[in-house]
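Lab notebook, bench 4. We co-purified these components, and the gel suggests they stay together. Before we commit to crystallization screens, I want a quick structural picture of the whole thing.
Request: model the full complex, all chains together.
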Amino acid sequence: MEEDEFFGEKTFQHHCSEFIKHSQQIGDGWEWRSSKEVLEVPLDDAEATETAAASEVIKYEYHVLYSSSYQVPVLYFRASFLDGRPLALKDIWEGVHECYQTRLQQGPWDTITQQEHPILGQPFFVLHPCKTNEFMAPVLKNSQKINRNINYITSWLSIVGPVVGLNLPLSYAIATSQDESNAL
Amino acid sequence: MTDDKDVLRDVWFGRIPTCFTLYQDEITEREAEPYYLLLPRVSYLTLVTDKVKKHFQKVMRQEDISEIWFEYEGTPLKWHYPIGLLFDLLASSSALPWNITVHFKSFPEKDLLHCPSKDAIEAHFMSCVKEADALKHKSQVINEMQKKDHKQLWMGLQNDRFDQFWAINRKLMEYPAEENGFRYIPFRIYQTTTERPFIQKLFRPVAADGQPHTLGDLLKEVCPSAIAPEDGERRNQVMIHGIEPMLETPLQWLSEHLSYPDNFLHISIIPKQTE
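Here is the predicted assembly.
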């Protein structure tokens, strides 16, 4: 195992399992899945139903995967109407809040693109991972400075999730800081 | 005596003779003749098939045309995979020319990524190049390059300009003098028999004891079924760019010479042909 990894796969798995524990407590649907053939790049997914227009219900599916190339988690997602029709990229864009749209349009690497899911082989939408370290580093540094326990997955998902309609309940963050006070 | 640089040219200029036929259920105003084309192994389907599209659209009505997609023996072809990879993986055991069917309707949303423009191909290509450099150099080399250098890589590929491409790509193939190779080797291993589209893992070109890793070492570690059984008749072929490199080949050398323009080694594991 690599010692010099900033956020290695084992660390990813650990933070995910803490995240899942809380998810099970509040029943919001995240699951941990291992790839059947080879034990690597695990994924979780959650389904959230949101109403777009008056009569159209859209189902969102979110998967958190680990990128060994960038050593960060990556958010894959797709959306479809209840009859199975998938949403196109332009429909997804319309769902992104205005305040995020400008930011995303600035850099080609920060944008939402369609990619092949590395385990399922199907088209998903992805937020490009290469800037993740840039925005996560200050979060991690600050947490060390004030000696506060954080869960990388919770912090990361609370930053990238809202861009694509995924809002984490506050209870995730509360749970993590409670773990810390229990440990003291 | 073949120079290593000749290998780079041979890889770049590899071609596959292909016959494009319009899907029989497409609505045409006249009979559609098949269209023949030599496809560059290192490029992408939607980048090199403008002439194919024009040829078939000539006999169709505008309203019957939507996004073009390609299929081989019932399998939709992923445009975001290099052409040579698709051929080696799906059609290398069949006789030439490669027979591809062209579709203009019923886009298979669950199987294929959309390709709305050439910009989408460029974005995908550059994304792969970036990821390869993240593995090789922690992104240092690609991030130090100017935007115009990135553009030159893409233009070199798009316009089939070997020298233009390699003027920049050679920098992505360098490594610090004190090292023995890249940090990790960018590779993907494909098999049609598995659910998962490909295997990709962290793998170093040199072992802890300083011995260079070989292609065989890589396969043994991440895909042992590819070279099974070790004693006796092998069940599979290991193919890159239409050839079977010796398993003793150093991985670092393979990465420098047999990578695709996206800087990845795309390796196909296919069942051995029985004569």
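Chain B touches chain A at residues 78, 80, 109-114, 123-124, 126-127, 130-131, 134-135, 139, 186, 194-202 (CB under 8 Å). Worth comparing against the SEC data before the next meeting. The beta strands of chain B are 15-22, 35-40, 69-72, 75-76, 98-103, 187-191, 236-239, 265-271.
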